[in-house]
Design brief:
five-stranded antiparallel beta sheet; Aminoglycoside 3'-phosphotransferase, Chain: A, domain 2; 53% helix; 14 helices; Phosphorylase Kinase, domain 1; 2 domains; 403 residues; alpha+beta
Length: 403
């Protein structure tokens, strides 16, 4: 841990930097709020699903005549980053069409935070601006302003697909995990060393620093004490104080590709054929491919089975990645070796921990407490078992010697 004087200096400088970023990011958000206030209802994007759930609004949004809108059978939601619902549209021809609608979160704090940080914009660009090589829902409408956004897509729940969850039975099995990892291998190979400039990178990703990490950790542990093993908690706190260096480690890791970025089990869906698709692509970014693999396995695979299966699953992913890269026909591209992947598996676990702790501790019900508790417990057990703290310390020492 740094000295007291160093800690005070780090906190003050980071808080000033964060404040500057917040002010800079808030200007277009606030301006858009003010400008939208003076627009007619016909010119505004809906602020919530209720505003979108009229025939007039749907007609404007999807560009086709809609004569009726009614709610479909809802589904339990535990991630509150958006307001969402399942609707049945009646078309001009009298046919019914089922759609899924997402707008900005109901909670004002979450809505403003994700708008200012560009999370909603990032998802829109992923769905509408990228030629994705994996299954994603068909999008009928994707529109955005700095303070509002709306996505209307096909209702996959009406097509017999399975939407899994990290804490709900049946748990993720080896067969299911293999199919998910094959899907990520296809995504990663497609964008290997060819990452679109529209996704988050070192210049554009939201800044989540050490102070935010420490504060959200304190808030999370106040709600769910004892969920993180003591040794992991010590390593995680130490990592937070060197978070800028940790970020440099991730950015320097090779190869780099476009990752999903929020690759927990609940952000996948599966057809009866076994084919897996991806949803909720709000955090697509330039990262090492093991970011998605680690996040998925550490948070979504039952911890009592992971120690037994993780070597085989990582080897399966690397084999699939190598095969997908071979199909690209570029001999300069290669999949990481198992040793390289394993080191990243250890290092990327700190991102998984940060993501879940931040979402559970930031407030505004950004993450359901059960999801946070189950995910953080699994990640903590995995980090302790694989020696994530030692691996990070070794990597940081190696990085310091290079400078």
């Amino acid at each position: 841990m740094p000295s007291l004087a160093r800690m005070v200096w780090v906190v003050l400088t980071e808080q000033l930097y964060s404040l500057w970023l917040l002010i800079a990011g808030s200007i277009p958000y606030i301006w858009d709020l003010l400008r939208t206030h003076f627009k007619s209802p016909e010119q505004r994007l809906p602020q919530n699903v209720l505003e979108a759930s009229t025939p007039e609004a749907m007609t404007r949004l999807i560009g086709r005549k809609v004569t009726g809108v009614r709610r479909s059978k809802g589904m339990d939601q535990h991630a509150n980053s958006t307001d969402r619902d399942w609707l049945v549209l009646t078309t001009e021809e009298g046919k019914e069409e089922k759609v899924f609608v997402k707008t900005a979160a109901k909670n004002a704090m979450v809505r403003s935070m994700l708008s200012i940080f560009g999370v909603y914009k990032n998802e829109l660009l992923a769905y509408m601006g990228l030629d994705l090589p994996v299954r994603t829902p068909t999008v009928h409408c994707a529109k955005y302003t700095p303070s509002r956004f709306v996505i209307i897509m096909e209702d996959l729940s009406s097509q017999g697909v399975d939407f899994p969850n990290i804490w709900r039975e049946p748990a993720c099995t080896y067969d299911k995990a293999s199919k998910v990892l094959s899907t990520y291998a296809r995504l990663h190979a497609h964008y290997m060393e060819a990452v679109p400039g529209t996704v988050w990178n070192d210049q554009t990703r939201p800044y989540f620093g050490k102070v935010v990490g420490l504060v959200t950790l304190h808030r999370f542990l106040a709600q769910v004490p004892g969920v993180i093993p003591e040794s992991v908690l010590r390593d995680y706190k130490a990592a937070l104080w060197r978070w800028d260096e940790v970020r440099e480690l991730w950015s320097a890791a090779s190869p780099q590709t476009m990752v999903h970025g929020d690759s927990h089990y609940g952000n996948t869906y599966a057809y009866e054929s076994g084919e897996v698709g991806l949803i909720d692509m709000q955090c697509v970014a330039r990262e090492h491919p093991m970011r998605d693999v680690t996040y998925f396995l550490a948070s979504g695979y039952p911890h009592e089975d992971l120690a037994r299966d993780e070597n085989r699953l990582i080897a399966h992913y690397l084999s699939e990645l190598a095969e997908e890269l071979r199909k690209r026909g570029n001999s300069s591209l290669r999949a990481p070796t198992f040793a390289e992947a394993w080191e990243q598996y250890q290092l990327q676990s700190f991102y998984a921990m940060y993501a879940f702790v931040f979402s559970g501790g930031v407030g505004g019900d950004l993450m359901d407490s059960l999801q946070g508790r189950v995910g953080v417990r699994r990640i903590g057990i995995m980090m302790e078992r694989v020696g994530a703290g030692v691996a990070l310390s070794t990597a940081l020492c190696r990085q310091s010697r290079k400078k």
